[in-house]
């Protein structure tokens, strides 16, 4: 085993976990779209609703923290 092999494996794991995290955030966003009675995209872009934008950002940060904690605990 070469010295670069563990580094390459860690980079591969990091990349795969990162992609999984991004995919879970996207899935969570679309689930939130289905659950709420309004369209987040329309409220933010067309109606310029700042409260909904803050809510969407908070949702993304919260889900990201939970997903990151779950990924760290699996190692």
What would your notes on this structure say?
With 75 residues, this protein is mainly α. The protein has one domain. The chain has helices spanning 4-35, 40-45, 50-73. It is elongated, with a radius of gyration of 17 Å. The model has no long low-confidence stretch (mean pLDDT 83).
Q: Please tell me the total number of domains.
A: 1
Note poorly predicted spans: none
SSE string: HHH
Shape: elongated
**Share of residues in strands:** under 5%
Q: Summarize the main sheet.
A: none
Helix content range: over 70%
How widely separated are the two ends? Answer: 22 Å
Helix-and-strand structural type: mainly alpha
Secondary structure layout:
Elements: H1 4-35, H2 40-45, H3 50-73
Task: Please outline what is shown here.
The protein is mainly α and 75 residues long. The chain has one domain.
Which features does this protein show?
single chain, 75 residues
């Amino acid at each position: 085993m070469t010295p670069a092999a563990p580094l390459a494996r860690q980079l591969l794991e990091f990349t795969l976990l990162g992609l999984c995290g991004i995919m879970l955030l996207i899935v969570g966003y679309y689930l939130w779209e289905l659950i709420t009675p309004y369209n987040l995209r329309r409220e933010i872009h067309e109606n310029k609703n700042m409260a909904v934008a803050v809510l969407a950002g908070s949702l993304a940060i919260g889900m990201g923290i939970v997903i990151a904690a779950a990924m760290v605990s699996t190692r």
